[in-house]
Backbone:
């Protein structure tokens, strides 16, 4: 890739307040193939929305450093290698890894291979911070070995941004939440034993059905005490609380689909009694499903 190298140019942008962006370009790189949101409603004034998305090409020597970042972005590595540093912690990221540029953080990304390619999505919105906190993503820097199907969500968002079909803002909001939910579930299982990961994958496929500790222990050939211990030790919760929170995470996503009734959503996440579903939702999120929908689909 020697022909990709070229003149080195240092850049520096001082932004509003204490924020700043520094970097180094090499020849024509980086090349940002981004599509920006086209809407009368700014992403920052919506509950959850994509600011921009697209492919990002780079070569060795290119770097960007942000101080007190004013954006949140997901950087999904497709080719090559990046060094990513955030708030003093350094990571090497290759294909299948995803790093998160956090709001308010100090971060630096540097290309350390001859050529690198990543998919980028920047998300904004009035509910972004609360969603990141509730999904336990606010303190996450890197997620390793992201499942291949997540690439499909990135591509769906890219297509929506480019083609802008009818109701594309609503669909972008839904796809953004689904992406964060997928990453949250992947992040939750980092460092877990394979047996626990198998249980988690099984629960992810069966969470909308009746499930008990005895069923899990029989399914995986271990005692109920072992099931409890694994969940407590590695996830800090009980198996049934894990199931309930997984159901509620999916319910939040479905509530963004305004055409779905709350009764049908309750049924789709495993609750045959709508009142019980609403009670559990309020217990966890401090508001009813109806109030959540009203707050987050007002655009």
Residues:
């Amino acid at each position: 890739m020697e022909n990709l190298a070229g003149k080195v140019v240092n850049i520096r942008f001082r932004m509003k307040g204490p924020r700043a962006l520094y970097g180094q370009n090499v020849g024509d790189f980086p090349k940002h193939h981004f599509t920006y949101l086209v809407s009368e409603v700014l992403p920052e004034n919506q509950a959850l929305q994509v600011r921009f998305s697209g492919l990002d090409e780079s070569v060795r020597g290119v770097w960007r450093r942000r101080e007190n970042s004013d954006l949140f972005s997901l950087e999904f590595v497709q080719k090559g290698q990046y060094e990513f540093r955030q708030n003093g912690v350094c990571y090497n990221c290759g294909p299948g890894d995803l790093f998160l540029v956090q709001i308010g953080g100090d971060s630096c990304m540097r290309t350390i291979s001859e050529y690198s390619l990543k998919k980028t999505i920047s998300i904004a919105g009035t509910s972004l911070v609360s969603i990141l906190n509730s999904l336990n993503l606010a303190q996450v820097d890197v997620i390793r070995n992201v499942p291949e199907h997540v690439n499909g969500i990135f591509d769906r968002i890219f297509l929506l941004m480019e083609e802008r079909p009818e109701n594309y803002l609503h669909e972008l909001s839904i796809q953004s939440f689904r992406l964060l939910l997928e990453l949250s579930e992947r992040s939750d299982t980092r460092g877990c034993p394979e047996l626990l990961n198998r249980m988690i994958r099984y629960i992810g496929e069966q969470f909308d059905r009746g499930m008990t500790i005895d069923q899990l222990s029989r399914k995986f050939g271990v005692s109920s005490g072992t099931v409890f211990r694994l969940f407590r030790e590695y996830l800090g919760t009980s198996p049934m609380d894990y199931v309930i929170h997984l159901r509620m995470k999916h319910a939040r996503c479905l509530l963004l689909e305004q055409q779905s009734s709350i009764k049908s959503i309750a049924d789709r996440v495993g609750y045959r009694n709508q009142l019980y579903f609403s009670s559990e939702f309020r217990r966890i999120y401090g508001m009813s499903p109806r109030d959540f929908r009203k707050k987050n689909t007002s655009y």
About this structure: DSSP finds ten helices and twelve strands in the chain. The first strand starts at residue 8 and ends at 14. The two ends are 46 Å apart (CA to CA). The mean pLDDT is 87.
